[in-house]
Structure formats: structure tokens, C-alpha cells
Specification:
35% of the residues lie in helices and 25% in strands. By secondary structure, it is an alpha+beta fold. Strands 3, 4, 5, 6, 11, 12, 13, 14, 15 and 16 form a ten-stranded mixed β-sheet that branches. Strands 1, 2, 7, 8, 9, 10, 17, 18 and 19 form a nine-stranded mixed β-sheet that branches. The structure holds flavin-adenine dinucleotide (FAD).
């Protein structure tokens, strides 16, 4: 494959197309899992789609997840079996569509009271049965001896045994980028670093939006039959903007922060993950091998604000280290933390008005504002496709957009068939033999710019490579060279100073 391949990103061309298109079927605001899922689904139906992202694709919650594709054991306990079944189905589809970004992962759950292997085992057997033929592996009760043999580093004192079950792990930011590229290949215009800051109305009805290219400051008007607000924890801000009223009067979202800590693999050298079934605040905590290190998390901390770069609170880091430390043979300390980061959960409130166009289903909700702005919020990464389907069904049911072609016929095109092409494409980009820091080559950086929409040092080091999330000090050291490469690729404002500032927040 030549480097002149159609997937090469040329921002000038993208911006020119944004300005020249007189009417889009669908304009999506927000380039996280939700918005990107909607864009892919709509593009598959043959609709004319534009997606605008204020910062970078997956800059929000969608790069800050625990990175598990799961059915939600919580819903099992509540008896909501159809929810669990649907998420387990989605888990299987993502594994099939993106095999280089997602993989099955076994989890062990230690038990320190005699009855726990029985109760945990029963629940997790039901979980496995709900996956049906899409089960990823058998659920097994483990004796104390088997636990210690499988996981010598687990806390042995009072250990009674445990349970092993299977779920899956994925790379959230990379899957988001694969979706952005898939949408783009299917004809959608996906543009990052372009903020929506106003709406166009005819009477009370919304007919489009105003946006600003944050690189140049250029403003642009976009006209669309239907506008979808998929901005995660910022959904209420965009609602207020569309209503032209002060925000906060009718908040639909509750925001809760979840933090993670990454420590050296030596603290958990196993290939299996550990699920701590009950922390001191009654939640679960994961210890997961990730990117050659170990990911520990998460927390649940209510927040009133919603910064684009939330920081873990010191007490969250202490809590994670203390809780994980109870289960690991060697408890990690603050000095062992390589990176600590936080994400904001967009939890949706039940609607105040149940009638009208409001449709609430599952963990997420889709509804229309009086202006016609379609909002989607809540849910989880695992079910992004189900959320997208509901958004499109909502828009079509309201006669806002044509149904498009039956995309199920084209299901095969949905496969993220980037992997084979990427290997060829990468080979055509120079710099494979020039290592910036272990795990990051000059070729990776140039590829990020040429084919993955990267515009800033942070775009490269946080989401194309995951170095910032894995080892913030290494990311800081790599940053000046990455900035120079971006400059060579024609990007003059690569945001080096901002990135060095951001790094500080990842080092406790
Ligand atoms: C700590 C934590 C752990 C999680 N773990 C898991 C997990 O293991 N598995 C799982 O399935 N799910 C998990 N989730 C849930 C999952 O991450 C989220 O549900 C999902 O990422 C939400 O995606 P989103 O697209 O709705 O929001 P976001 O990813 O936040 O996307 C919204 C986007 O809108 C953009 N935006 C905002 N304002 C504007 C504007 N004016 N103009 C243009 N763009 C704008 C933002 O920049 C942002 O990129 C977790 C969440 C958290 C916080």
C-alpha cells in the first residue's frame, strides 16, 4: 500500500469539506465512544454525517476507562438478566471486530470467608451461562491450594479459595480511533480540535450549529437535519447552549470521578486479573495487567465540575493503593506509582417527564430537547453500538433523518478492517528503527499524524501511544522529540508546554 493511500489525513481538506457541505443528514457533537458509535452506524446506513470533537477523539471518559468489556455483574445481582446478556453479546462482537485491540482475560476472585467460593461461584456461573455460546472460558471454583499455585503473590493469610471467570480487556482510546477512522472511510467527516459553541435556529427549532476550529480560530456554520449531542459529562452544557438559558436548571447528568493508578508489573506478575469483590466502601476493585504494567482501580468520587483534564484526588490514590495492597503480597506505595489518572462517569438521571419523546432504556437514555436537539447519555463503552442503534432509531422514529439503507445487509463492512491495511500502511512510513523511548518509535509518531488525526504532542502520547497513562515520566522525556517530529510533519502548534504541564497531573 502506498503512502498516498486515501486514509492519509489532510486537515485542510477536512475543514474545506466542513465549510462547503450545504446540508448534512446528521451532525454529531462529541468524539467519545458514544458519538463515534453513532457516526459509524449512520455512515453505514449511507447517511451524510459530520462529527465534531472539541479536543481530541477519546480525550474525555473514553480513554479513561478500566478497559474491560463486560456484562456488568452488578446487573446480575439486580436480576436484570437481559441487560447483562446484551452487554455480553456486545463484548463478543467487539472481540470479533477488533481482535488486535481486544482480548479475552481471565479474572480470579479471592475468597477469605468460607461461604464466598460458593456464593461467588454461583453468581459467576450464571454470568457465564448468560453469554451462551459466546462464553470466553469456563468459570471454576479454586481451592486455597489452587489459588496459591496460580497466584503466588496473592495475600495468603486467611485465604479460603477463590473463583476464576472470563471477561475481556480492550484499549479504549485505540478503539475510539479505529471507530473514527472507520467512520471516515465510510464517508463521514470526523474532525477533532473543533469545538461546537453555538446553535442555529429557525424559530424555536434547531437547524444547525456553529463551531470553531481551535487550531486556527476560524468559525464555521454547519447545517443538519438532525443534531446529536453525545458529549458525555458535558451533555447538560450543550443542552443549556441550545436552550439559550443558564446551565444547571434542569441537570440530567450526575458526574462521578473514577481514578486509576499504574504500578510496575512486579506487583502483579500474573497474566490473569484480580477482582477484589468488596472494598471498604462496598465496591469492587480491579488489578489488571495492562501495557506491560499493572492497572489498579477504580474509585467513585462525586464531582460538581467537569474539567477536560480531571486529576485524581490524593485520597483516591491512597485508597486504591491501600485496597490493592490488602490483596498483593507486596503492597505498592506512592513512590511506586508510574501514572495516576482520572475519568468522569456520565450517569444519567431518570427523566423528570416520562412522556413525549423521552426514551430511557438500560443504563443510557436518548431524548429530544424542545429545540429538537437529540441527546444521548450514560451507558458504558462495552455497549456503544447498542447506544448508537437507539440514537438512530430515535432520530428515524421522529422523522428527523431518512432511515438509510438496511445496514445489517452490510454487516461485514462494519468490521474494523483496518488491521491488515495498517500493517502495510505502517511499513510505508519511515522511522521504524528510530526509538524515542522503549515502545515508541519515530514511525509510530509519524503514523499518528498521517493516518490517525493526531495534532498535538498529547494526542500522540496519551491516546495513539498510551505512554502518558502508563509511565508519565517517560512521556515527559519523550515529549520534546515528539514535538519536533510533529513540526517536521507540518504541525507548528504542537502544544509542548501544555503537555509538560499536563504530565505533572499524572505523577502523584
Ligand atoms: C473511571 C471509569 C471507568 C470506566 N470503566 C469502564 C469499563 O471498564 N468498561 C466499560 O464498558 N465502560 C467503562 N466506563 C464507562 C465509559 O468510559 C463511558 O461510558 C464512555 O466512555 C462514555 O463515552 P461518551 O462518548 O459518552 O463520553 P466522552 O468519552 O467523555 O466523550 C464526550 C466528548 O465530547 C467532547 N465535547 C464536549 N463538549 C464539546 C463541544 N462543545 N464540542 C465538541 N465536542 C465536545 C469531549 O471533548 C469528549 O471527547 C468507565 C468510565 C469511567 C469514568
Amino acid at each position: 500500500m502506498s503512502e498516498n493511500d486515501h486514509s492519509r489525513v489532510d486537515r485542510t481538506t477536512l475543514v474545506a469539506r466542513l465549510k462547503s457541505e450545504p446540508l448534512w443528514d446528521l451532525a454529531v457533537i462529541g468524539g467519545g465512544s458514544t458519538g463515534l458509535g453513532v457516526a459509524v452506524d449512520a455512515a453505514l446506513r449511507g447517511l451524510k454525517v459530520v462529527l465534531l470533537e472539541a479536543e481530541d477523539f477519546a480525550k474525555g471518559s473514553s480513554s479513561r476507562a478500566t478497559k474491560l468489556l463486560h456484562g456488568g455483574v452488578r446487573y446480575l445481582a439486580q436480576g436484570q438478566l437481559s441487560l447483562v446478556r446484551e452487554a455480553l453479546h456486545e463484548r463478543a462482537v467487539i472481540l470479533e471486530n477488533a481482535p488486535s485491540l481486544a482480548r479475552p482475560l481471565s479474572f480470579v476472585v479471592p475468597a477469605y470467608r468460607w461461604w464466598e467460593p460458593l456464593t461467588l461461584g454461583l453468581g459467576l456461573h450464571i454470568y457465564e451461562r448468560l453469554a451462551g455460546r459466546r462464553s470466553l472460558g469456563p468459570t471454576r471454583r479454586l481451592s486455597r491450594k489452587q489459588m496459591l499455585a496460580a497466584l503466588p503473590q496473592v495475600q495468603a493469610e486467611r485465604l479460603k479459595g477463590g473463583v476464576r471467570y472470563w471477561d475481556a480487556q480492550f484499549d479504549d482510546a485505540q478503539l475510539a480511533l479505529a471507530l473514527a477512522r472507520s467512520a471516515s472511510r465510510l464517508g463521514a467527516l470526523t474532525l477533532n480540535h473543533c469545538r461546537v459553541d453555538g446553535f442555529i435556529k429557525e424559530g424555536d427549532r434547531l437547524t444547525g450549529l456553529r463551531c470553531t476550529d481551535t487550531e486556527t480560530g476560524a468559525e464555521c456554520e454547519v447545517h443538519a437535519r438532525c443534531v446529536v449531542n453525545a458529549t458525555g459529562v458535558w451533555v447538560d452544557d450543550l443542552r443549556a447552549l441550545a436552550a439559550g438559558s443558564a446551565e444547571g436548571s434542569d441537570a440530567r447528568l450526575v458526574v462521578s470521578q473514577g481514578s486509576h493508578v499504574v504500578v510496575d508489573r512486579a506487583f502483579w506478575p500474573s497474566d490473569e486479573a484480580l477482582l477484589v469483590p468488596r472494598t471498604r466502601d462496598g465496591r469492587v476493585l480491579f488489578v489488571v495487567p495492562w501495557e506491560g504494567q499493572v492497572l489498579l482501580g477504580t474509585t467513585e468520587q462525586p464531582r460538581d465540575d467537569r474539567p477536560f483534564e480531571p486529576r485524581p484526588m490524593p485520597q483516591e490514590i491512597d485508597f486504591i493503593l491501600a485496597e490493592a495492597g490488602r490483596y498483593l503480597a507486596k503492597p505498592p506505595t506512592r513512590a511506586d506509582v508510574r501514572s495516576a489518572w482520572a475519568g468522569l462517569r456520565p450517569l444519567v438521571n431518570p427523566p423528570k417527564h416520562a412522556g413525549g419523546t423521552a426514551r430511557v432504556s438500560r443504563e443510557h437514555a436518548v431524548w429530544s430537547e424542545p429545540s429538537g436537539l437529540v441527546c444521548v447519555a450514560g451507558g458504558k463503552w462495552t455497549t456503544y453500538r447498542a447506544m448508537a442503534r437507539d440514537v438512530l432509531a430515535h432520530c428515524i422514529a421522529d422523522n428527523r433523518i431518512p432511515p438509510g439503507r438496511d445496514w445489517r445487509v452490510d454487516r461485514s463492512t462494519e468490521h474494523l478492517r483496518l488491521e491488515r491495511d495498517d500493517a502495510l500502511l505502517r511499513a510505508s512510513v519511515p522511522g521504524a528503527d528510530r526509538v524515542i523511548v522503549p515502545g515508541l518509535t519515530e514511525q509510530r509518531v509519524r503514523f499518528a499524524v498521517r493516518h490517525e488525526f493526531a495534532r498535538k504532542v498529547e494526542d500522540v502520547l496519551a491516546r495513539r501511544s498510551r505512554l502518558l497513562f502508563v509511565d508519565a515520566q517517560a512521556a515527559r522525556e519523550a515529549a520534546p522529540l515528539v514535538a519536533r517530529l510533529l513540526q517536521e510533519e507540518g504541525i507548528l502548534q504542537a502544544g509542548l508546554e501544555d503537555f509538560l504541564d499536563t504530565c505533572g497531573g499524572y505523577l502523584p
